[in-house]
Amino acid sequence: MQIFVIGFVNELDKEAGLIRKSPRDKAVNLIKRLASETGGRAFFPESISQLPEIANEIIRDLRTQYVLSYNPTNKAQDGTYRAIKVTVDQPSGDSDKRIALTRTGRLARKEGSGTPHPPPVRMPVTTTPNKKP
Predict the structure, then answer these.
(1) Residue 133: band (very low, low, confident or very high) from pLDDT cuts 50, 70, 90
(2) Whole-structure pTM over 0.70, yes or no?
(3) Distance CA 90, CA 1 (A)
């Protein structure tokens, strides 16, 4: 399941100690991690007035999704983490760069914890135009 997170973190303390991160940095890192590990996105608006624009971006992401599936070549059922990287070919002559928003991997099914042959892995992929700098 993809998670899209809107984090209002501006009011959190930006001061960091010598050893610990600031509460704001901790919150931002947690929100970014939650979104990226699920293939979603994190947004950090400066004000509530930015919410309609963020909602439109989330709607666009949800409407431009594809579901990919594949059968992993590594059939070991050992419960280990398997990194997955999805790339998108860029159309020629287009000034927008497209990026794939996916989760970073999956846990392999542990032997004895389900069906004898794991089903194909299914991942939602959102292709988002990303303006070149």
Answers:
(1) very low
(2) no
(3) 26
